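Input record (Table S2, row 391):
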Amino acid sequence: MDPDLTEEQRLVYHTVREFAAAEIRPHAAAWDRAGRFSWDLIPKMTSLGLWGMSIPPEHGGTGLSMTSVVMAVEALAWGDAGIALTVAAHNGLCATHIALAGSEDQKRWFLPRLAGGELGAWCLTEPGAGSDAAAIATRATRSGDGWTLSGTKAFVTNGSLAGVYVVMAVTDPGRGPDGISAFVFDRHTSGIQVGKEEDKLGMRSSDTAEVVFADCAVPGVLLLGEPGRGYRDAMRVLERARIGMGALAVGLAQAALEASVEYAGERKTFGRPLADHQAIQHMIADMATEIEAARLLVLRAADLADRGKPFRRESSMAKLFASEAAARATAKAVQIHGGYGFMKAYPVERYYRDVKLTEIGEGTSEIQRIIIAKSLHPRKSSGFSGGPGAN
Ligand SMILES: Cc1cc2nc3c(=O)[nH]c(=O)nc-3n(C[C@H](O)[C@H](O)[C@H](O)COP(=O)(O)OP(=O)(O)OC[C@H]3O[C@@H](n4cnc5c(N)ncnc54)[C@H](O)[C@@H]3O)c2cc1C
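Output record (flavin-adenine dinucleotide complex):
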């Protein structure tokens, strides 16, 4: 743990880690097998303030700093990555978008509900547009004082469970990213249907579904932010959310490291514990070093965000490095466990599957490299023209 953390940040980490040890870890394998989110967690996590971490106190949340949020996400992911993803999408994407761009009325209406444990979903990706997020086809057309939305969103975390949806749609075709607006609305809005519920490789305790908007009527007051600003606001949201995804990767890697250290101390080969073999020591040393480096990158990006400094490049670096370091760490963890690592009886098998999402969600590693490279180019592009989107 970083020595410069404040008392509050340490307390958040230890409180959430204790909660994860008692209420999440013991059930993680069963949730993975079932492939669904457990509703039992909602009240327990509400009382800890976990659904309102990114929501200001005046709107019912705990209003944690970004640094405290990443500490909480790391501890949750140590317990179970799918639960951390559920919380991260709810807070880091849905609630953050409303908090950043919403009107006072929208904040007053939606944020306390989210802080109270009604799940939030954030719908940008579509079957035909993921990395190239500006190529979305969901269309919002004017009808009277409001809008009518039509289109299909793919791979939406909390998609089949959410009470509140933030949705990006084209309001002005031909204007590219500047023709995209965001909307926020209630699950009971007529015309919203849950489509295909995904059966996934990992993160199986989180819900992922298609959300279909079939001539869905939205009142004008539910336009979120300025018209034509939806894509830019979504990129601002992702910039913050990626720090959380980095923290999620660190938590998973930390769990893989701890499992490996424990196993290497117990398992004997050639008359000695695995931990005495230098090849195993090297793997464990590399895991620990990369996790520490990843955590520092995550904390650095979070600290910049907390101090109101630019952090676009640093958030991409944190997400890129942490997710790839975590993928290496979980692969090493399986290797250290030998044949047992391949079996579902050991949690490292799950970590190895769960970790892949961190290299894909909220912008793939390839997209993070593009963002970082662009930021270093002497002719800095805005990131909106010509290049790929950054979901
Ligand atoms: C479990 C899960 C949960 C998710 N939750 C959400 C959610 O809550 N909300 C939401 O909106 N989305 C969500 N997503 C979607 C996610 O953000 C996208 O899957 C991701 O951005 C990649 O988009 P894609 O799947 O369309 O891949 P594509 O964009 O088709 O990319 C395919 C491959 O090509 C690479 N590639 C693409 N363009 C380039 C380029 N210019 N240069 C080099 N390589 C390139 C990509 O890196 C990738 O390797 C989720 C996805 C998953 C798997």
